Amino acid sequence: MAEQTTHPANGPTSHPSNPAPHTLEGWFVLHDFRRLDWPRWKQLDPVERVRVAREAAKFFRDAAAVKEAGRGDSALYRVVGHKGDLLILHFRPSLADLNGLETGFAATALADYTIPTYSYVSVVELSFYQSGPEGPRPEVAQDPAIRRRLYPQIPGARHVCFYPMSKKRAGQDNWYMLPFEERGRMMHSHGMVGRKYAGRVTQIVTGSVGLDDWEWGVTLFADDPVDFKRVVYEMRFDEASARYGEFGPFYVGIRTEPEELVAWLCGEQVGPGAGSPAGPVAGS
Fold this sequence. Notes:
Layout: E1 23-36, H1 38-43, H2 46-64, E2 73-79, E3 86-92, H3 95-106, E4 114-127, H4 144-150, E5 159-167, E6 169-170, E7 173-174, H5 180-195, E8 202-207, E9 216-222, H6 226-236, H7 239-242, E10 245-247, E11 251-255, H8 258-266, E12 268-270, E13 277-280
Helix pairs in contact: 2-8
């Protein structure tokens, strides 16, 4: 695996009586949502559609191949609903890497037939309330279990759910004015709800303070999409969410491998020769 740099824990707070939790950061993350311009796409000659789709499939295969070297991961999802058609998800060591992938996709012919609808930039984050205001021991950053959480591969689950969120800063419901110990207690309770879904839902929390419009991004992965509803609904009754949580739009999608992308875009199973359909796709 390629060498990975753990971003140092955040430094001393300027408010020692009410400190921020120490955090560790890992991969930078881009959620890139696109809508397909279907009228223009359907005007393309079928042979050209196959060529364009195959070029895009190669881009996504190449993007995902970096996980073999431990340099991140990429995945593609078909978005369900009106908010878009595709979610392109990238984990990488730096913002420059993410920008390079944006540029790489823009160079494909398929990009000319897509319209950006939303994007989210963040970084995988672990916070350490349970270590106290002084933060975790330095060697924690090298713990293999911690590093797997900071530098995860994208789970292979069939479905994805993404939403941004922030903590309230209004009147008596100001999360950032609560004592450190009180925030830690609520976050521990919040985490215990999530643990009930271990093995069914994988959660990756990414920090976006200073990087995007919300404070965190939450990405959930599950084979059964009903588990998204169950875990989010149960967490709504937890005090950290019920009183202090503010949530943005929710996006759900279906994992789509590069070969599936070609079939979906072309409306048919595509044989080895460009423009040589093998028959209709069932359930695409």
